[in-house]
Amino acid sequence: MGKVKDFLKKKDIEISLKRYGIDALGAMAQGLFCSLLIGTIIDTIGKQFGIPFLTTTVATIKDAPYTVGGLASAMSGPAMAVAIGYALKCPPLVLFSLISVGFASNALGGAGGPLAVLFVAIISAEFGKLVSKETKVDILVTPLVTIGMGIFLSWLIAPPLGDLAMVLGKAIMWATDQQPFVMGILVSVIVGMALTLPISSAAICAALSLTGLAGGAAVAGCSAQMIGFAIISFKENKWGGLISQGIGTSMLQMGNIVKNPRIWIAPTLASAITGPIATCIFGLEMNGAPVSSGMGTCGLVGQIGVYTGWVNDIAAGAKAGITSKDWIGLILISFVLPAILSLIFHLIVKKLGWVKDSDLKLS
After folding, report:
1. CA distance linking residue 23 with residue 36, whole number of Å
2. Are 59 and 71 in contact (CB under 8 A)?
3. Which residues, including other chains, have CB under 8 Å from residue 289's CB and lie 6 or more apart?
4. Degrees (nearest 5) of the Cα angle 196, 197, 203?
5. Once rounded to an integer, what is the mean pLDDT over residues 310-338?
6. Cβ contacts of residue 139 below 8 Å, gap of 6+?
7. Which of 101, 103, 251, 302 could bond 219 through an S-S bridge, CB–CB 3.0 to 4.6 Å?
8. Half-sphere exposure of 133 (CA within 13 A, CB side)
9. What is the pTM of this model?
10. Phi-psi region of 91 (alpha: psi -120 to 50; beta: other; left: phi over 0)
11. So what's the pLDDT on residue 113?
12. Distance between CA 107 and CA 24 in Å, rounded?
């Protein structure tokens, strides 16, 4: 048993929740951001500003036309898999082999492809690491094992994993449509907290293809966490903290949350209020890329995603146009209400003696 542990340590294979549930999942979200999300943004910019180069077909593959953004989006599978491999510290031959693995698992996983990529890429990467540099023909063995395992698993488990993700995602979206108040609270709070925790809310939303009202609630919850922490910690962290948390990530407060979990009360309560306001009053929907649902105000990706969804709905004939209520709802839910509500709740918890100003200081 000791020899096995030593071998796994030598290969840097760490079977843990942190390695797979935090490091790999977080990296997968970055891969999605650098492919599907950026591609969607490029397409939206091209259409809205009438830029011919961004709206013209630049490649046709098997009768399918691709724009510049379309090509970037089409690489989401390989991008996710390579990002996961990077997080798992794969050697070069394993890392490069994951390009094929990501394409296969994403394609066979269908709409639930991201979840399939996560599982298949992790397993394939670890098997590749096991054999890496163990033979004199490493250039053949390592890619063969990594890709062979990846393609086999893609054929075996990617379709059911994709179906499972779709079923779960549709169940959440259906429940939100039926009970927008209750689900607005639950989705907003849970996804918002996931954004602040060292896991990836964006990857979760992408894996479940979370859009519609549920996606809107997710945007509300994530925005509440980011804007909330940015505002209540302004006294300690000034403008740098405002920007790094408000359009960066509220995850920066994770160390302080461990020291005093009560600092999390204000933004979490804010998300419990903005979620149902988003679903019940403004009918805020995220019909852009699902990954945007879990991004909040990070680079304004959540808001860009909502706008992209409006544009897509108009093009599909599902929406007549973008109204003033749409804009007011998006601004209130994303920025104004999180700031005001978080500040009010923060003053209350400070009055109770649960939180001190120094508790929110970023190192």
Report:
1. 20
2. yes
3. 36, 37, 40, 206, 305, 308
4. 90
5. 93
6. 93
7. 302
8. 8
9. 0.79
10. beta
11. 85
12. 20
Coil, strand, or helix at residue 61? strand
**What does the longest C-alpha to C-alpha distance in the chain come to?**
68
- Other residues' Cβ atoms within 10 Å of the Cβ of residue 317: 7
The answer to whether residues 225 and 213 touch, using CB atoms and an 8 Å cutoff, is no
CA 342/CA 25 separation, integer angstroms: 28
Chain segment 139-189, per-residue pLDDT in tens: 999 999 999 999 999 999 999 988 888 888 899 999 999 999 999 999 999
3-state secondary structure of 222: helix
Task: Give, for 337, the enclosing helix (H) or strand (E).
Answer: helix 337-351
How many DSSP H helices and E strands does the chain contain?
Answer: 19, 2
Provide the pLDDT confidence category of residue 257 given band limits of 50, 70 and 90.
Answer: very high
Q: In the numeric block, which tokens belong to residue 286?
A: 């995220």
Contact of 30 with 17, CB cutoff 8 Å: no
What is the token pair recorded at 164? Answer: 């499972």
Tell me the C-alpha distance between 182 and 185, whole Å: 5
Both tokens of 181, joined, read 């108040």
Tokens of 79: 């991008």
Enumerate long-range contacts of 321-324, CB under 8 Å, 24 or more apart.
none
Q: How many residues does the chain have?
A: 363
DSSP 8-state assignment for residue 65: E
Q: Determine the Cα–Cα distance for residues 197 and 91; give it in Å rounded to an integer.
A: 28
Helix, strand, coil fractions of the chain, as percent rounded to 5: 80, 0, 20
121: closest CA among 94, 141, 144, 139?
A: 94
Cβ proximity of 28 and 117 under 8 Å:
yes
221's tokens: 């919850």
Tell me if 31 sits within 8 A of 84, measured CB to CB: yes
CA atoms within 13 A on the CB side of 253: 37
Q: What is the DSSP string of 69-83?
A: HHHHHHTHHHHHHHH
Report the C-alpha gap between 360 and 358 in whole angstroms.
5
Task: Please report, to the nearest 10 degrees, the dihedral formed by the alpha carbons of residues 22, 28, 33, 35 taken in order.
Answer: 170
